[in-house]
Amino acid sequence: MKRLLLRIDLSNRTHDIEEIPNEIIKKYVGGRGLGAYLLYRFVPPKANPLGEENHLIFTAGPANGTGMYYSSKVNINTKSPLTGIYLYAISSGIVAHTMRQAGFWAIDVRGIAESPTYLAIDNHQVQFKDASALWGLETAEAQKRMLEDLSLAKAATVGIGPAGEHLNPYAALFTDGALYRCFGRGGGGAVMGSKNLKGMVISGDSHVKAVDEEKLKEVNREVARLLKTEFKGWAESWRRYETCSDLESMNELGMLPTRNWQTGQFEGWQGIDKSTTPMGWPEKGRACGPYCPTPGCREVEVKDGPYQGAHSDIEWETVYGFGTSCGVDKMEAVIAAGQICDEYGVDTITAGVTIGFAMECFEKGLIHEKDT
Q1: Residue 257 — pLDDT band, cuts 50, 70, 90?
Q2: Are residues 133 and 241 in the same domain?
Q3: Strand 125-130 and strand 56-59: pairing?
């Protein structure tokens, strides 16, 4: 199967396909390596991150789509509006697998659409669709509407929320609809918003073959064996608490970012730990993407109190961003903050630590009520 790059020009509403040389695939390993190479190739050094010269590049790797365990990650690569330098961010979900099924190792988006637009990519076909009615919608609802507009029951989706539309420098891109998988860091959502691009829908029906199918099966069997033997304890902990499994030990070691890193220990950690909060966490976890043998994602809804009805799938980043970094010891508040970020399309890490920084500034008299 050829290794293909789909290049989309929003300004001219055109697209073309080019083959990626095999030596490039071997030299720049995986989606991250390939993305860095393409970004260096396409984006000039002094490009404005929110300007026409910047590109938004989605890249997959050789394992995506093959059935290899733990192969759900997809990369975005761009110039960050938050830092002004190279950005890569990753997300779980079905985007990378679907890209490979559509025939692509990479999708490069450049230019600026004349009006709000979303892209419909079906194998090698590309449509530029009107997104005017989607502008202003939250991330999951926008992705749902794109699927409905195309009469698709299931496909890979990527989209931004109001934060990306308003070019918030730490706006994120979200995928997989109401599962809220996220390319979190660096403001990729603002780059998409600057291009008047609300999102993408990707579908494909090609079979992705591993170079050595038998060897792949052997590797998967060995991974499964290890998860039942040498790594059984880790696997059970991950399935139950996922990325939040180390909160207690991080606190004991003084590595828990607390009150804008004024200390590394948080006295209220038990109030935001999945193992100690009686939130009714589902017993059965949900996989973050295809071919994950240790599913641990769990969404929970707050049943009562001031945050009643708030719901989110809380992970480590949100727990320390809105919890320990801000001195918050209530899981219900963290869940509510996570939901707001998911819906508006904001990175929970940057949002949380920014608030923690502002809180310390306020406490030390560097800012006042009129600044808040």
Answers
A1: very high
A2: no
A3: unpaired
- In one-letter notation, the amino acid at residue 18 is E
Cβ atoms of 200 and 118 within 8 Å: the answer is yes
Integer Cα distance of 133 and 113 in angstroms:
15
64 closest CA partner among 92, 100, 90: 100
- Residue 215 counted as domain residue: no
191, 262, 327, 350, 355 from 366: Cα distances, Å = 32, 16, 19, 20, 14
CB 160 within 8 A of CB 173: yes
**Is 159:199 a contact under the CB 8 Å cutoff?**
yes
Write down the pTM of the prediction: 0.94
The domain in which residue 245 lies consists of: 231-371
Quick one: DSSP state of residue 305?
S
Q: CA-CA-CA-CA torsion for 363, 317, 296, 179, nearest 10 degrees? A: 100
Flag whether 216 is in a domain. Answer: no
| DSSP reduced 3-state for 224 | helix
Inter-CA distances, 279 with 84, 215, 246, 284, 314, Å: 40, 43, 18, 14, 12
Domain assignment present for residue 221? The answer is: no
251 and 167 assigned to the same domain: no
Q: 238 pLDDT band (50/70/90 cuts)?
A: confident
Is 272 contained in some domain? yes
Alpha-carbon distance of 360 to 206, in angstroms, equals: 53
**Cα separation, 369 vs 241, whole angstroms:** 38
Q: Could you tell me if 101 and 45 lie in one domain?
A: yes
Residues paired with residue 89 on neighbouring β-strands, in sequence order: 76
DSSP-assigned letter for residue 319: I
Residue 4 β-bridge partners: 19, 104
**Tokens standing for residue 127:** 């449509």
